[in-house]
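Appendix B. One record, verbatim.
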Amino acid sequence: MAKYLLRRLNLFLATSAVLMLVLFLATRMFPVDLGVALTGVEQPTQEQQQQTIKAYALDGSGFSQYVAFLQQRLGGNMGISMTSQQSVAGELVDVLPASFELIIVTSLMALALGIPIGVLAALSNSKATQNVIMALTLTGYSIPVFWLGLSLSLWFGVKLGWLPISGQLNLLYEIPRVTGFVLIDTLIADTPYSMSAFKDAVLHIILPATTLAVFPFTVVVRITRAAMANVMTQTYVRAAEARGLSTAMIVLRHALPNALIPVLKSMGLMLGAFTSYAIVVEVIFSWPGVGAWLVQGIYQRDYTVIQSGIMVVALLIIFMSILIDVLHTATNPLSRKELYATN
């Protein structure tokens, strides 16, 4: 197992190094002075220019410049925003919790709804029920996320007025920032209106989370259905049936835990598409996360923001993909057997 984890660590480092190399080369293609693209300082003084040359080894070879670029970016020095003149790292710290909060709520919604419906589609003897479920999932998978987000905003936000369509929280509430997760901060806030603020935060997250959850929900339903249909034909399930165990007991204790293994793997495969959809959703609903912050930086040609946003999002995708792969190997008996056999 140690060798396997070491290989995955090496994979993460190698992939991250390639990513940083692409960013390093792309930075030199920005239509602006290299020092400005690296630091965000548009009118640097002579002293600042010398500091930039020294920090990024601009008077050295290409390899030394790449190493210096790695040291600065991975060390937390991402320059300042060309628009706000604030630290890019500080802005990232401010917007990351909003994205994490949206993704966590979305993932919980997709799993909580997708797994039971997938099990129902696999176990149901009614062809009509199976066809309806699969038709709905195929429709949800095919709907463009931007169209869905705008449609939900129009109907439930504008026409019916049931739900807010932008932001995380009504500006009337003054909630101290503790964790950065508004749903948590509103609950722990020592204010007389904390519960009202929490309810408002829940209302704000319903539309963006629902829009974003449609894609993973459909994938979870389809993968769960296929996995359950396969697991229910296995020998150990038939043996459990022969022992007289109830269907519910067989599903919960024997079939479902094994059927969830392919679901875990599919989550790693759809991280890239899921992240791109999250960026679109954040823009549509003015959600103050990394996606909206990055798109705003692109519109404003804020090169330090573009670099840092792409770097953080890509590194998170790489890390989560490898982490899910490790978890899949650790929970899958067949993978563990092959793993220890190779060791």
